[in-house]
Design a protein that fits this description.
The chain has 52 helices and 16 strands. With about 1300 residues, the chain is mainly α.
Length: about 1300
């Protein structure tokens, strides 16, 4: 019957038979039925609609003529149903499929026996109606009838394969609708059976191969199992190979094969796949006549493949062809075509892709309108609805990204949420939708700053990543986007964990991505940006090196005609700029200029990022000018920055920054050429910058600082007092801003102070100093690492605090001077001791409030505006006013939160500096002497019961002299090997050694510092006061005086013994790094003998042997009445000691101490399993601690770069909770330590027994008398041996 001539002859013959047969003849119905069947066959061959119309006409007459009991009526009904089914497939009229089902049901009801083909055909009709209407009941019935057909026993098995195939198709469709994995597994199972029992050469085999391939592709899209998509392609390729090239059925086989290649490309990224997809789909389109029912879907799929290749290779011809194909598919599909929403959605996707490349608003508007229509046309229970909603969400997101309308990002989130609500199961589609929603939340966070949005983004993207199997490119995309969200949160909150997770995610994203895949360059670009951010935070040179390497590779992999090329070159240029700022290498700034120039060249005119790229180019020229001083560079910088300003529209949030940079470039040229027009231009542009930047904007202080410095520069040249007044006013405005980078505001306060010296007014200067000191907690914030806080103190605070205190003293504001001195030195120490306890207590009692305080403080500490902007492309940013409002809201929220905390019981003074009234209470038992060493003067301020503050000027001492004494001391100790990097405890000193340097230092300290202070204490404070033994004095020095042995000051070299005198003869002395430390409550009253942990390291590999440490332990054990626990050698590990500190309240450590002058926090005790670092001790809190005796080398020497911070091992023990600590200023003799230890513990144990251990052990007195014992053994003249022992604390 495949021969059309034979078919035409048969039709002619049966037409004659029908014509010759009367209506009442009993066989006429069967003749009409046969004639209809031949027309049906001809329709299948030619597709002529008239043929199927004729078939239905004759078969309908046959049914009407056949009486109810006619034996052929069921056959006629079944065949009529088949014809209705065929016409429905061709025309899509729902009435036809309804009539098909009605006829086929009637045929089955009238038949005595179930007929396999009839049941199967009825199932197919239900399947077709399900495809059209989406009623789940229809696909359930289809499966029911097809399953019955496939299971019917029959001698004739020829129809079995067809039934199994059709049953598999129905399970496939139900899977598409419901997402139940069992359906797709059953589809594959039944379709495999159909193929296995179908002989080669059978016409239907190619159909079954094609359908099974579709099922494998669907299962792959659901689960990501790569073997499934490989199987799909293999089967569909076979189906195509066995189908004649002129057979119209080949149209869909080619289309489906192309779709499988496209799917594999989308997930694995092999370019050959997308090329083959286009090749096969183009062949399908060419083969299908214009009126072929599958031509629209073939065109739509071809367009989608062109779009994929465009995203991969960036060839603009591909996206244009994609849009043309989609437009033609819509034109060919009637308005009521069931797949019209899909075609509209796909066309919208292509407009999205072209918009991303060309940034033409008309494209994204078309995309949104098309996808809105697609959503509207798709029933809620159609699975395609969620796809259309998700793509609509992406379109809204893209428009927001480039135009910044908040309504768009809110609609994007709404669409994505609705798409997810329609999902069932956990598959690749869900992963994609979760990721899209996460991106939307991330973008809204970038605009509005709501921390809940970025937290939600990360939560969604983490789930999206977990769904995707390893090895798929989907995983790379998800990981990349997750990394971006982590970085966004890091930029806001400054939590280093987030940026580490960002890099970890983005590195993992790169691994499965081939170089040829379009996502590789994108991932590398983002990874490079993240490394830049971490470098800016940590300063690790390896981060900027990696950033450059990743960005170079990203640029290399990006095609020259891709729009992203310019953005990636721009980012590469920024990375070179950043490295240049760190290392100052000319090659880096040359490469930065080169990259920015190329980025500008590749950026289309009018592109939203054009102004930003000109700005970055101008900045790189400015940096090169600073190195080369070539006038051409600064001229080019000005030219580029003028271009940037001209291209940024009024009201754009980047305009102030561009104006600021332009002003800076004119200032640089002024410094070179002294053309007053340049400095005038600088001031003009900065005035506009400040005018455009609202109060509360985080960049306002930085802009004001530049304006102030430009006024001052003009003042230096023109000597116009108006410029000086303007400079002072502007710096005051900057310093008193409530938002912005604390460093910028602190810097402004410093300049404000320096300017005021030109027209001194004590009140004004005191106000400026007060502002500077008020800014310290923000500048040296508790939320960053201790190392970074010390670095800030070293680099930025300097001597300003000493000068502030000196200014207050000069103004006779002594109580204010005490407060400032306390707030401005041992800053980190105060944070650890004074602030940590209430913060910990707040977290313990009100954890949610503590978490919110930490979170908002982080948000205010990071994310300030920077000159060079890096990113994938132009992104919508908050307006200047929105940014300012956001920061003002956070400031108000933090202030309100602190106010509410201070209303809580026990938190009245939470995070407030102590007032003088509180500080003065520390001197109830003994005087506390604060010594300020400033550039202009040196003074002592004595706190005592007798006087609020006793001021003692030190006119013969100076900062310069303190520094000289420190240099002599360190030189002497270095010469004697007592302060070297590889430290050891001194074992012996020659009796003839010359201590002249040290003796001279101690005499100078006595005459210029200690004696004048002691005289005032004895004359005004201790006069008439009865004391048992010597009185107690606590020293709290500043500057390099902190490193000098005030406790040993005296005259030790004199021919007349009566002239020998020293502090040891008059007082017992201690040191306190901060007065606040003495405010800590005394340990609870004990009535039990203290528990002592003793740690000794006599034979530590790599260090000098210390046999005397065992002697120390023996002495303590003999005194301690069984309360001693001794850890020696390999027992004394870091973990063992930290664990022991939880239960022992006295701690004696006899070992080598290591002072790290490069990084004080790495100072340590040398133990059996490594170093017990100061940083670890400072992070440890020890309950009920009382006493620590550090019988080690230089445990009380700090860092000369931050002398006011007392960064040494003794301080670490104080921070860990020990109120009383014995330490050493330099290395001690191994034979000397046991003498001091024995005398110390005998005295302290004797006093404890006498008091019943009710009082705090007087460690200061015990050490004083123990050192006296050592002096008896070694002689007063051997100062180097007895002077290192010092006491800290109570």
């Amino acid at each position: 019957m495949n021969d059309l001539d034979d078919l035409a002859n048969s039709i002619a013959t049966w037409e004659q038979v029908v014509e010759l047969t009367p209506n009442e003849h009993p066989d006429r119905p069967i003749y009409l039925n046969n004639l209809g069947n031949f027309y049906q066959m001809q329709f299948q061959c030619l597709g002529d609609i008239d043929d199927i119309e004729a078939a239905i006409e004759f078969q309908l007459e046959a049914v009407e003529l056949a009486s109810e009991g006619h034996p052929n009526k069921p056959v006629c009904l079944s065949n009529l149903g088949n014809s209705y089914q065929m016409r429905f497939e061709h025309l899509g009229d729902i009435l036809d499929i309804n009539k098909a089902i009605e006829s086929q049901l009637a045929a089955i009801r009238l038949s005595a026996d179930s007929v396999v083909l009839w049941l199967n055909s009825l199932g197919n009709s239900y399947q077709m109606r399900f495809e059209s209407l989406g009623e789940i009941d229809d696909i359930n019935k289809a499966i029911e009838f097809q399953l019955e057909a496939s299971e019917l026993p029959s001698d004739d098995q020829s129809n079995k394969p067809m039934c199994l195939n059709d049953l598999g198709n129905s399970h496939q469709m139900r899977f598409e609708r419901l997402g139940d994995e069992t359906d797709i597994d059953k589809a594959i199972e039944f379709q495999l059976k159909a193929i296995r029992i179908t002989p080669d050469g059978d016409y239907h085999k190619r159909v079954y191969l094609n359908n099974l391939g579709n099922s494998y592709r669907m299962r792959f899209e659901h689960s990501g199992e790569i073997t499934d998509i490989d199987n799909a392609i293999e089967l569909q390729l076979e189906a195509n190979n066995i189908t004649p090239s002129d057979d119209l059925e080949k149209v869909m086989y080619l289309n489906n094969l192309g779709s499988s290649h496209a799917t594999r490309f989308e997930h694995l990224g092999h370019t050959a796949d997308v090329d083959k997809a286009i090749e096969f789909q183009l062949e399908a389109v060419m083969l299908a006549p214009k009126d072929h029912p599958k031509k629209p879907v073939c065109l739509s799929n071809l367009g989608t493949s062109h779009q994929m290749r465009f995203k991969h290779l960036g060839q603009i011809t591909d996206i244009d062809k994609a849009i043309d194909s989609h437009l033609e598919s819509i034109e060919l599909a009637p308005d009521d075509h069931p797949d019209r929403p899909v075609y509209l959605n796909n066309l919208g996707n292509s407009y999205q892709a072209r918009f991303k490349n060309r940034i033409e608003k008309v494209d994204i508007d078309k995309a949104i309108n098309l996808q809105l229509e697609a959503v509207k046309l798709t029933p809620d229970d159609d699975p395609k609805k969620r796809v259309c909603l998700s793509n609509l969400g992406v379109a809204f997101q893209m428009r927001f990204e480039h135009l910044g309308e908040m309504a768009d990002i809110n609609k994007a989130i709404e669409s994505q949420l609705e798409a997810i609500s329609l999902l069932s199961g956990c598959n690749l589609e869900k992963s994609r939708n979760l990721d899209n929603l996460g991106i939307c939340y991330q973008m809204r966070f970038s605009r509005m700053g709501g921390i809940l949005d970025i937290n939600k983004a990360i939560e969604l993207q983490l789930e999206a990543v977990q769904i995707v199997p390893d090895g798929l490119l989907d995983k790379s995309s998800r990981l990349n986007n997750l990394g971006n969200s982590y970085m966004k949160r890091f930029e806001r909150q400054g939590d280093l964990t987030d940026i580490d997770k960002a890099i970890e995610s983005q590195l993992e994203a790169i691994n499965p991505t081939e170089n040829s895949h379009f996502d590789k360059a994108k991932c590398l670009n983002n990874l490079g940006i993240t490394h830049i951010r971490r470098f800016e935070y940590l300063g690790e040179i390896s981060d900027i090196e990696k950033a450059i390497a990743f960005l170079v590779e990203a640029v290399t992999l990006t095609p020259n005609d891709a729009l992203d090329k310019a953005a990636r070159l721009d980012n590469l240029g920024v990375s070179y700029q950043v490295r240049f700022e760190r290392l100052g290498e000319l090659a880096d700034i040359e490469k930065a200029v080169e990259s920015h120039l190329e980025a500008v060249r590749l950026t289309p005119k009018g592109h939203p990022d054009e102004s930003g790229r000109f700005n970055n180019l101008g900045n790189s020229y400015m940096m090169r000018f600073q190195l080369t001083e070539l006038i051409t560079d600064i001229n080019k910088a000005i030219e580029s920055l003028l271009n940037a300003v001209e291209r940024v529209p009024s009201g754009h949030p980047d305009r102030p920054m561009h104006l600021n940079n332009l002003g800076a470039s004119f200032e640089m040229r002024f410094k070179r050429l002294s053309d007053m027009g340049d400095i005038d231009a600088s001031i003009k542009f900065l005035l506009e910058t400040v005018d455009l930047t609202p109060d509360g904007h985080p960049s306002r202080p930085a802009f004001l600082n530049n304006l102030g410095s430009f006024y001052y520069i003009r003042f230096e040249h023109m000597h116009e007092m108006d410029d000086m007044d303007n400079a002072i006013h502007v710096f005051q405005m900057s310093a008193t801003c409530v938002t912005g980078n604390p460093y910028d505001r602190f810097r402004a306060a410093r300049w404000w102070i320096l300017m005021l010296h030109s027209k001194p007014d004590p009140n004004d200067i005191l106000s400026a100093y007060q502002r500077l000191i008020d800014l310290l907690p923000e500048l040296i914030w508790l939320g960053v690492s201790i190392h970074r806080r010390y670095q800030t103190i070293r680099d930025d605070v300097g001597n300003f605090i000493h000068n502030a205190v000196a200014t207050a003293i000069a103004a006779n504001r002594l109580e204010l001077a005490v407060e400032w001195m306390e707030q401005g030195r041992s800053i980190v120490w105060a944070q650890l001791l004074h602030l940590r306890s209430p913060v910990d207590l707040l977290r313990k009692e009100h954890p949610a409030i503590a978490d919110r305080l930490e979170s908002i403080s982080r948000e205010l500490d990071v994310g300030y505006a920077c000159q060079a902007r890096v990113g994938e492309s132009n992104q919508a940013v908050a307006s200047l006013e929105e940014q300012a409002q956001s920061h003002r809201r956070k400031i108000r929220e933090r202030n309100n939160l602190l106010a509410s905390i201070r209303l809580l019981p026990g938190f009245t003074h939470f995070l407030k500096p102590e007032r003088f009234e509180v500080l003065s209470t520390v001197a109830q038992n003994f005087p506390v002497v604060l010594i300020n060493i400033a550039e202009q003067r040196c003074d002592a301020l004595i706190l005592s019961r007798a006087y609020p503050v006793l001021h003692v000027p030190l006119p013969t001492f100076s900062m310069e002299l303190a520094n000289q004494l420190y240099t002599v001391l360190t030189g002497s100790l270095q010469t004697d090997g007592l302060r070297t990097r590889q430290l050891h405890r001194a074992t012996a000193f020659a009796s003839s050694r010359n201590d002249s340097g040290l003796i001279s230092i101690l005499e100078t300290l006595w005459r210029s510092v200690v004696h004048p202070i002691l005289q005032e204490i004895l004359r005004n404070i201790l006069i008439g006061v009865a004391t048992q033994g010597l009185p107690r004095i606590a020293w709290s020095p500043s500057g390099t005086l902190s490193f000098l042995p005030l406790h040993a000051a005296g005259v030790y070299l004199s021919h007349d013994s009566s002239d020998k005198i020293g502090i040891y003869d008059f007082a017992i002395t201690s040191y306190v790094p901060t007065v606040t430390m003495l405010l800590r409550p005394n340990p609870r009253v004990h009535t039990a003998i203290p528990k002592v942990i003793v740690v000794t390291q006599p034979n530590l590999p790599g260090f000098v042997r210390l046999p005397g440490t065992l002697e120390e332990a023996t002495v303590i054990e003999s005194i301690g009445e069984g309360q001693i626990h001794h850890l020696s050698g390999d027992q004394g590990t870091r973990d063992a000691i930290l664990e022991a500190l939880k239960t022992y309240n006295w701690f004696h450590l006899a070992c080598h101490g290591i002072q790290d002058l490069e990084d004080p926090l790495n100072s340590a005790f040398a133990l059996h399993d490594g170093k017990l670092l100061l940083s670890r001790l400072m992070g440890t809190t020890i309950e009920d601690a009382e006493l620590a005796f550090l019988s080690a080398c230089q445990t009380a020497s700090g860092d000369k770069e931050i002398p006011n911070e007392s960064v040494h091992l003794a301080a670490g023990m104080l921070a860990a909770g020990f109120p009383s600590v014995v330490g050493t200023m330099w290395s001690i003799g191994d034979s000397d330590a046991p003498i001091v230890v024995e005398a110390f513990y005998k005295r302290i144990w004797h006093e404890g027994i006498q008091s019943g251990w009710r009082n705090r052990p007087d460690a200061a007195s015990a050490l004083h008398y123990a050192v006296q014992e050592l002096r008896k053994h070694v002689g007063d003249h051997n100062i180097i041996r007895w002077a290192p022992f010092t006491h800290f604390g109570h």
